Amino acid sequence: MRWSERQQAMLRQMGLRVWPAALPGAAVAPERTAARAPRPQAGVSANPAPATGTPRAVPPAGMPRLAPTAGTVGTVGTAGEVPTPGARADLAGLDWDALRQAVANCRACGLCASRTQTVFGAGHPQARWMVVGEAPGEAEDRQGEPFVGPAGQLLDRMLAALALTRSSDGAAAPAQRVYIANTLKCRPPRNRNPSAEEMALCEPFLVRQIELLQPRLILAMGRFAVQALLRSDEPVGRLRGRVHRYQGVPLVVTYHPAYLLRNPADKARAWDDLCLAAQVAEDAAVASGPA
Ligand code: SF4
Could you tell me if residue 170 is left (phi over 0), alpha (psi between -120 and 50 degrees) or otherwise beta? Predict the structure, then answer.
């Protein structure tokens, strides 16, 4: 497969170089192919036809690459040690529409007073990937959709580089679909950090979203997503680069796009995280068989 000019441009924008020998029309040295083979795209065979034009995304010079593999899977505790997430009995039977309505009507915490509207989530309800962010910002509060504005545009470009999309129109193959949700459904005033109480009160909605979606892979973006899903106060930088579990679902930690906009040097690490997630998603697809 060849990456499009748009994908190559996106990688350059993220601060990543595309391996020159892999550009269309260039020969690929065999030893480079073996040593630097990229993570396959989700839903794409792990043994694609070799070749010419296979992309090579590598970090900038001097940037260490973790190169995690399926053999370096780590966990935060075992399945039995991970605390049971904060489910709410009255949400257990709700379908997507009813859950969305429950969120829209929620006044459980003080954030309801300052919100313009709730931000439920976006994407295909049968997506295999789930992206979990933090709390809505100003643009999300205004539009009612997670990850809009510059950070959302960066996320969309990152996903597009792996042929993934948040579109819910059904045109994308199941393996390419992404559902995006935030840990909190209402914007904290002036984008302050959410309190532990606010996160706890809002958590049941995210729990039910995960139950309904049954993703094959969760990508947790940012500190508060990690706190909600892994019950960990460890910094993102210490949790990324390996595979965790949320109620048995593989979970990969990475930086929030808003952070990446402020710290572009970490875009290479975020790209490695996405490649790890793509590998995990493909492994899960192989293990599960055709949908
Ligand atoms: S942040 Fe969550 S718990 Fe608080 S009012 Fe909004 S939907 Fe309800």
Answer: left
Buried b (16+ CB within 10 A) or exposed e, 56-86: bbbbeeeeeeeebeeeeeeebeeeeebeebe
Pocket test for ligand 1, best of 111, 114, 119, 120 (most atoms within 8 A of CB): 111
Number of domains in the chain: 2
Q: Is residue 84 part of a domain?
A: no
Same domain, 195 and 54: no
Q: Which of 202, 206, 207 to mutate to test the pocket of ligand 1 (most atoms within 8 A of CB)?
A: 202
Give the residue, by CA position, lying nearest to ligand 1 atom 4: 109
Instruction: Report strand pairing: 17-18 vs 129-133.
Output: unpaired
Question: pTM score > 0.70 for this model?
Answer: yes
pLDDT averaged over the chain? 78
Hunting for tokens 């949320």 — which residue is that? 246
Instruction: Calculate ∠ Cα 124-260-59, nearest 5°.
Output: 100
